[in-house]
Amino acid sequence: MDYVNGPGRNHLFVPGPVNIPDQVIRAMSRNNEDYRSPAIPALTKTLLEDVKKIFKTTSGTPFLFPTTGTGAWESALTNTLSPGDRIVSFLIGQFSLLWIDQQQRLNFNVDVVESEWGQGANLDVLASKLADDKAHTIKAICIVHNETATGVTNNLATVRKILDHYQHPALLLVDGVSSICALDFRMDDWGVDVALTGSQKALSLPTGIGIVCASPRAIEASKSAKSVRVFFDWKDYLKFYKMGTYWPYTPSIQLLYGLRAALDLLFEEGLDNVIVRHNRLATATRLAVEAWGLKNCTQKEEWYSDTVTAVVVPAYIDSSEIVRRAWKRYNLSLGLGLNKVAGKVFRIGHLGNLNELQLLGCLGGVEMVLKDVGYPVKLGSGVAAASAYLQNTTPFIPSRI
Amino acid sequence: MDYVNGPGRNHLFVPGPVNIPDQVIRAMSRNNEDYRSPAIPALTKTLLEDVKKIFKTTSGTPFLFPTTGTGAWESALTNTLSPGDRIVSFLIGQFSLLWIDQQQRLNFNVDVVESEWGQGANLDVLASKLADDKAHTIKAICIVHNETATGVTNNLATVRKILDHYQHPALLLVDGVSSICALDFRMDDWGVDVALTGSQKALSLPTGIGIVCASPRAIEASKSAKSVRVFFDWKDYLKFYKMGTYWPYTPSIQLLYGLRAALDLLFEEGLDNVIVRHNRLATATRLAVEAWGLKNCTQKEEWYSDTVTAVVVPAYIDSSEIVRRAWKRYNLSLGLGLNKVAGKVFRIGHLGNLNELQLLGCLGGVEMVLKDVGYPVKLGSGVAAASAYLQNTTPFIPSRI
Amino acid sequence: MDYVNGPGRNHLFVPGPVNIPDQVIRAMSRNNEDYRSPAIPALTKTLLEDVKKIFKTTSGTPFLFPTTGTGAWESALTNTLSPGDRIVSFLIGQFSLLWIDQQQRLNFNVDVVESEWGQGANLDVLASKLADDKAHTIKAICIVHNETATGVTNNLATVRKILDHYQHPALLLVDGVSSICALDFRMDDWGVDVALTGSQKALSLPTGIGIVCASPRAIEASKSAKSVRVFFDWKDYLKFYKMGTYWPYTPSIQLLYGLRAALDLLFEEGLDNVIVRHNRLATATRLAVEAWGLKNCTQKEEWYSDTVTAVVVPAYIDSSEIVRRAWKRYNLSLGLGLNKVAGKVFRIGHLGNLNELQLLGCLGGVEMVLKDVGYPVKLGSGVAAASAYLQNTTPFIPSRI
Amino acid sequence: MDYVNGPGRNHLFVPGPVNIPDQVIRAMSRNNEDYRSPAIPALTKTLLEDVKKIFKTTSGTPFLFPTTGTGAWESALTNTLSPGDRIVSFLIGQFSLLWIDQQQRLNFNVDVVESEWGQGANLDVLASKLADDKAHTIKAICIVHNETATGVTNNLATVRKILDHYQHPALLLVDGVSSICALDFRMDDWGVDVALTGSQKALSLPTGIGIVCASPRAIEASKSAKSVRVFFDWKDYLKFYKMGTYWPYTPSIQLLYGLRAALDLLFEEGLDNVIVRHNRLATATRLAVEAWGLKNCTQKEEWYSDTVTAVVVPAYIDSSEIVRRAWKRYNLSLGLGLNKVAGKVFRIGHLGNLNELQLLGCLGGVEMVLKDVGYPVKLGSGVAAASAYLQNTTPFIPSRI
Fold first, then answer.
1. How far apart are CA B315 and CA B324, in angstroms?
2. Measured between beta carbons, which residues in chain B are less than 8 angstroms from residue A69?
3. Contacts of B124 (CB under 8 A, 6+ apart)
4. A37, B190, C36, D244: which one has the fewest Cβ atoms less than 10 Å from its Cβ?
5. Helix/strand number for chain A, H first, E second
6. Rounded to whole angstroms, what are the CA distances from C26 to A378, B304, C34, C48, C97?
């Protein structure tokens, strides 16, 4: 009946789905309820209000779709654009690739701006495209804030600056799936028009809510966007928001209570502290990788991701074998290399509900696996590098008795 | 933090989401896992195989979409049809109405066959439309097996007979949301091309899986269907089925384990016994309604639904007040009357994980509420009628020690 | 793996262990913790303070023993008495019998005052014994507040009056296992010296905490009591209370969090409201028994118990068969008749986390079982009587949205 | 509401209560049940049969007391001995000290054989006492298999040899609280008369079951033992065993299901594999301690405990500060030094449901704490030593897919 065997805990270090806090698991361990009773709308109202905080927006309108990140992508696109609309989209890894595939299948006219995997979005090309587009034929810029396949974080503030520089009205649509609640993200400051994430990422919930947040401009655009949509249509939600019942179709009661608990925990820790914690654990991970003598797939420090580190292995090692052994031998779940970097990188997800000692356990495990597969790692070296950094930076937690 | 207050249990008798067995709640109370490990595909394989049994199909291909019934509708339509395709669709209540709305918004050419709410689908009109359609311009018949708003069950065997009689090749798309796992449903025998349900209905899980099952003809149709789709596209699933990894995007780990537990329980009880149990509880409910001197919204016995009973209240009573009081005073969740029957009916959902004494508690509660709102009910009368029937028909459960 | 089979919920109406609120089950669904960390003492401190409220004492000292009611009995006796001490003890049913058996095995000199089962403690005998005991050879009065086997509640206020009348210094030791948190209980007002209960009764927790509360006189007595004791010794606890670490040996972390949640729920409802609710459900039960034409085992109204009703069946019926069928056929758990009333009574426990509709379900079930075993019950009659009363008395719950 | 704060998991490395497997937490997350229904005896029967396996006995009789280890001690002593009986008992640390305190308070005549803390039981003294005791005045030998305070494991096989050598009939009573299910323990082979453990130790359950197992000789002795006992009396259990209802008073339903799940997991892994795993993790821990340049409190290798390691800190460090910081800064729970070794040692519990990477996380944490408090540890050194050993010895787990 149970497929994760062996004694002790599973060490979950894929970049999603991530570890769920026990408080959230408890909050979700419950029977169904009538979502048309007064209780669920009252709960939903608090969620819609509070979820805006994780996007750092006051003017945005959030939607909690019963879907995944892929569905959230579709909702972002189909509500704001019409078939044939020209969009600029950056291909820098597997997830941006998949989003572009979706954009094309939804019949948008996509200018794909490709970078080598391991690099960030080429914003020079963006600038030149905007410069050329006096007629404003470009309707939207689609960008993945954090490419989960390569551990690359794009600079959204710069994207906004470029758009502003050219006074270009294109909508800015951002995939924040592996960034929001973990990396610095500022919807209002950066003029993001649609931002989206999935519950199973830094929010540390099960999969099942695709959270989409729309700026006033995006809401306005949705009124004339001609893409066919029903399930993902914002219009139905907006209608039920007005009625105060909120749900055009049945939500997951469990995920609503889970989201409430997850937000409570995030706010208790403090969103800014959460972001600092992610940076601290990510830095420690990168120091370990360096100590092992391995390379970060991310080519420049400016793109380093604080939620996932893709580690390049020597050519004589198959990175998939590392992932396989980690799981089978040490109950450690690492991320595979995907597509172009399959076999070449393995990924350590360090996002969501994690702390220092969990990370050290993971790093110690990776070292053993590296040795298992024949890489001449010095055992303890990564842990030493990581813990030297962590020991200096880990705060005392005042709320702890 | 908790919005359902008051001592004791909530008595959940809405026609979905329904009561989840404790075993299933337990099975779902867990952390996330890496869905790319060998464990999740191994689990998924058993689910895809076993879920076919609830559709009574051996040739069908099931899809477990991370969505709701509304999403499952969209998947059924967009994978089999092209914009402009003519379809015949039956409007008999709120849920068939919503599906038709979706069909129209997805740009199909819908022949709406309307019945009075409380009646079943008008199959005479179907017959005449098929008789007239020598050119086979009708591409699909869309029908709700059980209309949850009015408690009306349509006769799918007859639909198939009519199609066969006219040797009409139209696809038969069936919403089984409030029927599958509770009413007799036979995908293969009745030549259903797409059948669908939602996890929060008779499967007795949380909301979050839209289960769509496609016949070989439907799979064939999907290859040429031109409706735009990505998230709901079967093609991506079929590709991952072949690869043996099953998931084009992140599933809910918890729902997969929950579905496993739910199927195990259904098979342990025996799917046929489950259907008999639903009939027994539904019959008892109808006898209670009769004893109260109230009318079933369903106009003829042939359409009586074994999953939900819509009860018509006298004109001087607002049925919404019954639902409100039941919840507020007795922690009893009943279904509202929707749209045309708002204020006129309340609904008792008797599907999913329920037994005799839970139903008697509900009926006793309804009696008190009826008295609360001024209806001259004889307290105990409905319980008497229901229990007289149940006492004769409830089986000894052999598996119980 | 699971031994309670069949669809739907188990209907738990034994007089303990009782139904646990979902909030409490959730609060307990957790890993172990170090009980020597600062967190557990901080939690324990709140529990010891708040648990006094359920005894209605401000001067008492509570002990949370990792044991059952039987262990709590032993702790009450051995900490306050010395071998050979004379005590007066009332035998009115199986549980007072078992306590007396324990008293005798612990080598006390027990004056057993026996009543017919179904009657309360004979307080006239108490008065005459006290009157005779000028030398104060009687060291303690032991009395069960509520005899769970027969559904008899003794009048503790009268016991105190008699003691005061004779100015007798005997300690008053009270078994409140099936009364505290459900019946009116006033430790300070009634001059109770040791009161005790078990977590699995009206507190609605799992079995595992025997709660003993000692008056200042009892604490004083414990300093000279010569009964041998270690595990149940108050001295060890008092020592750790002073140190602020509270636990001389490992407590159940889960039960501590569960007790916290259980107390929070009780206080949220209001302890007085809880007591009124118990009276209301008990009255409804008694009205149903009357409507069935059956007799209450409790011989006079003054002794009626608001936590359990023992129902006498006609001589031609074996009450054990009723209990067996209820469980096997309807998933309804009723209490057996014990010892002298075995086969003659069955018991309906109506204590703890329960509401009106749960009770109606139970009563409807009992009616069906009565018919099953050949008693000429009029189905619905008990439910009618109970619901007529409940419909008039059930309050609107203001905290519910 | 929740007192263990901070993000991520608590790292629980006290020598009890220990980490509970998720499967066990799930199995226990349930409502109460009637323990007099047929289901609970059926479950209990399997537990009593299977629990014998963890004692490696076929002839023993197990008792599942709703109590802690302290209560289990009391049950072992009072059922087999009479007041004034002479016993030989070994004082080697805090827990043997507490047991001796209990023995003395229960009025036995205790020959205390003391060793320096950090040493094992002085078996030479045992030999000489037995040699001198021609009259067989010694009624029992009481010995702690594994002293949790100092991490010392006594050699029970040698104890048996000495007893046999002198053909001495004294009963052999063994505290296996921190050994059974983790260390090699052979009740039948070693002629142990009473062995006992607590659920919260290597069985990896919550606190609440004191498991006592009695040899036929011990059962025989219980018939004439004159120690006063009621709650802890084996006689009541034996009576209910014969009746097939098993429980003289209410057990914890949750712990019974939890014990079932815990035993299932142990047997799935294989009890011998579990013991090997404990040895492997313990060896790794000792290698880390050595690498840190710190001393094991246990003075000779023959006494090394595979369930807990007590680490001696330099005189200029207060070991309590290490424990305090570990908890407050890194969410790591370590064991305090107790009594004579307070401030001098901290303890790493490595028993129960644990795996390699959890241990590495702990060791990495200890290193950081050591540095925090000013000990010149080389970060990573302990992890390096431990992982070098683990990487060579960790088995592939065949049951894992």
1. 17
2. 249-250
3. none
4. D244
5. 13, 14
6. 44, 39, 20, 22, 36
Q: Which pLDDT belongs to residue A399?
A: 58
pLDDT single digits (tens) D249-286: 999 999 999 999 999 999 999 999 999 999 999 999 99
Residues above pLDDT 90, as percent of chain B: 96
Structure tokens at C277: 């609710």
Contact C287, C279 (CB under 8 A): no
pLDDT of residue D369: 98
**Binding partners of B (≥3 Cβ pairs within 8 A):** A, C, D
Res. B379: pLDDT tops 70:
yes
Residues C37 and C43 sit within 8 Å (Cβ to Cβ): no
Contact C102, C108 (CB under 8 A): no
Q: What is the 3-state secondary structure (H, E, C) of chain B?
A: CCCCCCCCCCEECCCCCCCCCHHHHHHHCCCCCCCCCCHHHHHHHHHHHHHHHHHCCCCCEEEEECCCHHHHHHHHHHHHCCCCCEEEEEECCHHHHHHHHHHHHCCCEEEEEECCECECCCHHHHHHHHHHCCCCCEEEEEEECEECCCCEECCHHHHHHHHHHCCCCCEEEEECCCCCCCCCCCCCCCCCCEEEEECCCCCCCCCCCEEEEECHHHHHHHHHCCCCCCCCCHHHHHHHHHHCCCCCCCCCHHHHHHHHHHHHHHHHHCHHHHHHHHHHHHHHHHHHHHHCCCEECCCCHHHECCCEEEEECCCCCCHHHHHHHHHHHHCEECECCCHHHCCCEEEEECCCCCCHHHHHHHHHHHHHHHHHCCCCCCCCHHHHHHHHHHHHHCCCCCCCC
Chain D residues touching residue B39 (CB < 8 angstroms): 401
* Distance from C-alpha of A34 to C-alpha of A17, rounded to nearest angstrom: 28
pLDDT band at A395 (very low <50, low <70, confident <90, very high): confident
Contact map slice: D 68-97 vs B, CB within 8 A: none
Total Cβ atoms within 10 A of residue A399: 9
pLDDT > 90: percent of chain D: 96
CA torsion angle A63 A64 A66 A72 (round to 10): 60
Q: CA-CA distance, D276 to A362, in Å (whole number)?
A: 23
C10, C36, C248: residue with CB nearest D33 = C10
* ipTM of model: 0.97
The pLDDT assigned to A58 comes to 98
Asked if the C-beta of D284 comes within 8 angstroms of chain A's C-beta atoms, the answer is no
Confidence (pLDDT) at A401: 57
Q: Give residue-wise pLDDT tens across range A331-357.
A: 999 999 999 999 999 999 999 999 999
From residue D98, give the alpha-carbon distance in Å to each of C177, C240, C249.
31, 14, 10
- Which single residue is written with the structure tokens 């294989």? D270
What the block records as the tokens of D280 is 């492997």
Sheet containing A345-349: give its strands across: A295-296, A308-312, A345-349
Question: Residues B117, B123, B129, B135: is their CA dihedral positive or negative?
Answer: positive
CA separation for the pair B281, B13 (Å, rounded): 12
Give the mean model confidence (pLDDT) for residues D141-148: 98
Q: How far apart are CA B233 and CA B75, in angstroms?
A: 7
Q: Tens of pLDDT along D179-237?
A: 999 999 999 999 999 999 999 999 999 999 999 999 999 999 999 999 999 999 999 99
For the stretch D284-341, pLDDT in tens is 999 999 999 999 999 999 999 999 999 999 999 999 999 999 999 999 999 999 999 9
Q: What is the pTM of this model?
A: 0.98
Per-residue pLDDT for C399 more than 70?
no
| Chains adjacent to C (≥3 CB pairs closer than 8 angstroms) | A, B, D
C6, C388, C399: residue with CB nearest B397: C6
